[in-house]
Structure formats: structure tokens, C-alpha cells
Amino acid sequence: MLQERVPDLSRSVTSLVEPDRVRREVYTDPDIFELEMQRIHERVWIYCGHLTQIPKAGDYYTVQVGRQPMIMVRKSDGGVAVLHNRCPHRGNMICGDLKGNTGEFFRCSYHAWTFHHDGKLKNIPMMESGYQGTRFGKGNPDCNVKPAARVEVYRGFVFASLAKDGPSLKEFLGPAIVAFDDMCDRAPEGEVEIVPNCFRVIQRSNWKIFMENQLDALHPSVTHQSTGRAAHEVEKQIAKKTRKGEAPLSYHMLSAFATVTIDKWDGFQTINYPHGHSILTGYMGLRPQDPDTLAYDKIMIKKYGKKRFEEIIGVNIHHVLVYPGLSVQSPLQQLRAVRPLGVDRTLTEIWHFRLKGAPEAIYRRSLAYYNLVNSPATLINADDLENFWKCHQGLASEGGDWVSFHRHYGRDLEKNGVVESAPNMGTSEAPMRNQMKAWVQYLQD
Ligand code: FES
Ligand SMILES: [Fe+2]
């Protein structure tokens, strides 16, 4: 028998979350997960993909929005649609592949119903004779593939919301919109192009554990210390052998995890906004004076002028978190999209982008970083994944009831709903507190 347990849960949400700590069930209870999918992931704006993934009419990518399998498709008129991946006949998924080109229309593989790119029914085999006198057929909206309630695109980034009402994409993003502006502005042509493949990682942990780790400025020098140390040793050996005494920049990207001591990470700052979004400022200093960078600078100055170029390149962002499902590192042209699959299973898709008009060497640099921190061959991602799994295992145990977010609690600076970590308190758990504040608001709505 179907039971309606969800309303009971939403009433008790406030007892699960306090400003500085959270009950472990928030991460482990399957009913809470269902409620999160209904009230958060299937309502708010969720990142589907980038327009450059689907350049031609009929190009599509399948994507998970909350619990819903969806299709992002380029329409014949050049626009984009996001559709439920479900045939209105007997429920078959319209697209079984991750991506492809559907041609001029979708054709269901079960009984050959066909649909336009916007989901509207095109034809049913033997429609006249088969459906005469029934309420099915053209004109009945139930015969169309259901579209997402709302779709919006910002600078090529496609978002869908499954709720008819709610803030516009821009209102929802608020100041976190800088993630997309910063990434695109760094391109001489003002646009980025997706590199058409991503790392897909399934982690055995709740989705919120991933989100909380993204702006956790304390963990890198601990979790990634062993990887950083090994990279530093190799960096020193290579440096000794080179004329200029320098190893390639990619070694520095890893060795920084060990050479930047734990107290230095407090020098970062987090700015935490409504809706659970956050920005981590401070940057690892990837503005070297090598010939590749100088060539890029020259192109940018020619395009934008010196003043605007300095503004663009001076944007002080390390990471932007768009709650509940996106983590963007705009200066390195990469993002991670979070797709919760179950209370203890989460898919992340890790994409990277080319700056249109920038020299190839600049792309190679961001590719190096992308591989160094995300590929199956790197220990950086493996270090994090192991923590995520161990966190989930620990939280599922009865060894304690609460998760602690007390670091620098009470010292945050709050003004007009924006919470900043205090100076030299960059490791504050303010982003986690901010996420849980938004979580409660969403679940109570
Ligand atoms: S289920 Fe799609 S045509 Fe029958
Ligand atoms: Fe990490």
C-alpha cells in the first residue's frame, strides 16, 4: 500500500538541523532523500549541460534531473529543449543512449511513435484506424513527450527546472552567476566550448557530503598531503636537472597541497549567499610569466584593452558552489555536476572547457589540471572519494548522532543575508552551515 510519509518528515526537518550541527539521518535516511528530490532537485534550476554539446539540430544528451531521466536536445529552430525521457505510449525511454543525434525527429524503439524535437507528437503508426474514436491521437497533450517546466540558458550553460513557478535562473543564481561570467570572460571570444567528454564518477556516499567538501579549505593539506609530498619530491628532482631550475607548472598544481601549510588555508575567504550558494576566494597563483601565458595576455589585451583585461584576470575566485548540484572552478575552466542516485550513491560528471580564441597551450594547461585532480589515475580524486565513502559509513553507524559544523561558528560576518567568513578564518564551516540553512528552507516550502 502506498504510504504518504513525506509530509510528516517535512514537519520534523527543523529538529534535524541546528545552526552549528546536523543529525546524521539527514545523510542516511532514504525518506529524507525522497523529500530532497521532490523539494530541492526537482524544483530548483539544475544544470543540464552546455549548448556546445549539442551543436546540430537533433543532437541530444541524456541527463538526470532529480530522479527524472531527461533529454537535452537541440531543436530544428536552433533552440534547446529539455524533455522527460519517457514515451507517452507505454513509458519506454525515448533515448537509451547517453548521447547521439536523433535526426529530424525522435522515434520510440517500441512501437514507432515519432515526436518533434520539442516533444510534440508527430505520428503514430496507423493512427487513423488504430485510434479512431479514442481520446488518443494528435491534439491530445497527453500524447506528447513531457517537457521540463522551465528551461533557461546563460552564456551557453543550459539549466532546467521541473517546477512551473519559482525564481528565474538569474534570480536563483544571484551573485553565483559570476561562475559563468568569470569562465567566459577569460576567453578572448567571450565564450567557452565544452570538451565533449567527461569523467563520470559514482561515489558511495550521500550527495551532500560531496557538496560540503567542495569549499572545505581545511582538508586539502590533510587529505591530499601524501599526493602533494610525492609531487613535490619529483618537482625538486626535475627542477635540479633543468637549466632554469623549474619543473613544469603541473607539478606545482599538486605539490601546493603539501607545501601550503595547514594554517595558510585560513587565508582564503568564503562568501555565502542565499539559496545555499558560496564562493571561495583566494587563488593558488596560477598567473605565471611563461611565454604561453604572455601570448594569451597579449591576445586578451588586444581584444579587451588593458584595463578590462586586468579586471577579468584579477577576479579573485577559486571555486563557486551553485547549490544543490554544481561546483565550478572558473579560472581553470572546469565544473562538476552532482546527480544524486540514491541516499548513498551519487554520480558526479566532471567537465572541462576551452576558452574560445585562446592559444592551444592555455587549453593544455587546464587539461593538465583537469587530469591531475580528476582522472582515475590521480590520487587527488581517490583521496576525496575514500573520505566520502568513509564519512557515509561512519554516519550510517550508531557511533554518534550529530555532524559538527562548529569551526569558526559565531564569528561569521553577516550583512543583508550574505555571510562572510571572518578575516583569516577561511577554513570556517560557514559554507556547510549556509547549505544546511538553505536545505531546511527548501524542505519546508
Ligand atoms: S512505448 Fe513508445 S511507441 Fe510504444
Ligand atoms: Fe579534496
Features:
four-stranded antiparallel sheet, globular, alpha+beta, ten-stranded antiparallel sheet, 445 residues, binds fe (ii) ion, binds FE2/S2 (inorganic) cluster, Rieske Iron-sulfur Protein, 15 helices, Naphthalene 1,2-dioxygenase Alpha Subunit, Chain A, domain 1, 2 domains
Give the topology.
Layout (H helix, E strand, L loop, with lengths): L5 H6 L5 E2 L2 E3 L1 H4 L1 H12 L4 E5 L8 E7 L2 E7 L5 E5 L14 E3 L4 E2 L6 E2 L5 E3 L3 H5 L18 E5 L2 E5 L7 H5 L4 H8 L6 E3 L4 E5 L3 H8 L5 H4 L1 H17 L7 H11 L9 E4 L5 E4 L9 H14 L1 H8 L5 E4 L3 E4 L4 E9 L2 E11 L4 H15 L4 H18 L5 E3 L8 E3 L2 E3 L9 H15 L1
Antiparallel strand pairs: 1-2, 2-21, 3-12, 4-5, 4-7, 5-6, 8-9, 9-10, 11-12, 13-20, 14-20, 15-16, 15-23, 16-17, 17-18, 18-19, 19-20, 22-23
Helix pairs in contact: 3-15, 9-10, 10-13, 11-12
The protein binds FE2/S2 (inorganic) cluster and fe (ii) ion.
First and last CA, distance: 26 Å
Mean pLDDT: 93
Number of separate strands: 23
| Largest sheet geometry | 10 strands, antiparallel
CATH class of the largest domain: Alpha Beta
